[in-house]
Amino acid sequence: MKVLYIFPKSDPLIRQHVELLADGLRQSAEICIADSYAAFKQQLKTLQPDIVHCHGCWNFDIIRAAMSGRKAGARIVITPHGQMESWAIEQQTPQAKAGRIFQWQKLCIQRAYTIIALGMLEQKNFLKLKWNKRVEVVHNAIITNTISPMEMCSQTFTVYQKVIDSNTLEQMDDITAEALATIIKASITGDRRWCKNLDVVAHPQDIDWRRLMIYASHENIRNYVDYGINILSLPTPGIDTSHIAAYYPDSYTQPRPIKEIIGDYQGNETDYLLKMITQLHRQPLLLHMIELTRELMRDTVNDDQLYETLEGKNLKGFAASLMQVLSEETDLDEGYMPLPPQENRQTNKIRKLLTNHLKI
Fold first, then answer.
1. What is the pTM of this model?
2. Residue 282 CA neighbour count, 13 Å, CB half
3. Residue in 185, 300, 269, 296 with CA at minimum distance from that of residue 232
4. Which of 81, 155, 175, 282 is least surrounded by CB atoms within 10 angstroms?
5. Contact, 120 vs 135, CB < 8 A?
6. Among residues 320, 221, 314, 304, which one has the least CA distance to residue 269?
């Protein structure tokens, strides 16, 4: 884990807090510190941090650092140090409160993975702003004896780990992503001989199992992944994802099996497939794509009838794009597609919605 701190050089109390954190966390993470935007830009390029931790508000360097860090792929954590309390905001000039800095600051806070408040009262007051619901409390050992420096560092590291364990798809390497598709295909078919890309799982030690398992848990496909791993006889480390904390976008709800949304199968295969595709048109989810793939591979599917039904419902174009994404995510063979896959803007939109499902 690589963490880059930035703080205003004009505030000695914040500097003391940052330096205490940095010293205590160097055994657990690679740490760099910047007290200006120029220094930050250089260290951002050199370190390529996983997390940029911004300390303080009402400072243009801090805001620029948050924006640049996010653009570079780092995840943003902000400790306001009480500067977003109502009394602190009131102390700012009318020009500051009405200007771009305030608006950019709000945007940075909204996009941050989490806000670290230094006390329960600060957390309570910050939540009243309704800018970000993901607010943690870690007391400042510099100004209170209710927490030791070691405890402060330990709790801060726990927050960092929670940040890293969020939206693991974004951090997943190509080998792990390809392995996931192969595992899903093995799970759907129950037979490794259906898998086209067994080479990607030939060296299980190269797979980032932690990120893969966390992603499977967040998308509610862990049962499929576990079964696919069993079919492929892959040795995996024991990872209990139920005890791994993570942050989610405000709109997130764990995906439910599609039958809980559209109802149980009533015996009309074409009608059921139409309902599944219609639901995916509303919200593309990996769980529902796996369920659709399983259904499309049944011998009872009437491809011609399904094609005509999709055409009649103006879903043919969407379904063609969906088939392309299914070929990538669940390794669906063209022989089981009711219409040829298409690569177009709709295809990219489906991919983007899948990718952004857990994005903060």
1. 0.91
2. 9
3. 185
4. 282
5. no
6. 304
